[in-house]
Amino acid sequence: MTNWYVITGGPSSGKTTTVNLLRDRGYTTTIEHARHYLDLQRIAGRTVEEVRAKQRQFQRGVLDMQLAEEAALDPDATVFLDRAVPDSLAYYRFLDLEPDPALLTALEHVDYRTTFILDLLPLAADYARTEDTAAQQRIHELLTQVYEALPLPVVRVPVLSADERVQFILDRL
């Protein structure tokens, strides 16, 4: 088993804030690959709308980045992941896309110490987050279903202040 902890939840649930606070406390963390992929595409001259118009390509790009990162991590190191491979399955389902074979294969081998699913905060739109409240809630439900179907521990993290959420997580390692 790895010593990795997944931080996940629907859009605008405080994942990145939580992961950044964990990093500030000295823990190894990862980045959210969907946002990173969009940023790289924007640097290459594409708009968010252009990237999102090709959802299968977008989802596969995010998955490839996630797979590469997880393959490079030391399984014995304590790492907090800002989303993980199973998140991709939830997004494929949300978009009514047939899951990529690479995703299905990867899901057979995922091995996380614990997944922390953050309860939703009020939706805050930004350049990368295009979902409305209904989509936010549906994605959150799908993420919860995907992770709860895996044979790995899942902990729901209630809405608390950012520092209290971090402490809630650390108390459950």
UniProtKB/TrEMBL annotation:
Residues 5-165 form the NadR/Ttd14 AAA domain. InterPro entries: NadR/Ttd14_AAA_dom, P-loop_NTPase. Gene3D superfamilies: P-loop containing nucleotide triphosphate hydrolases. This is NadR/Ttd14 AAA domain-containing protein. It comes from Agrococcus pavilionensis RW1.
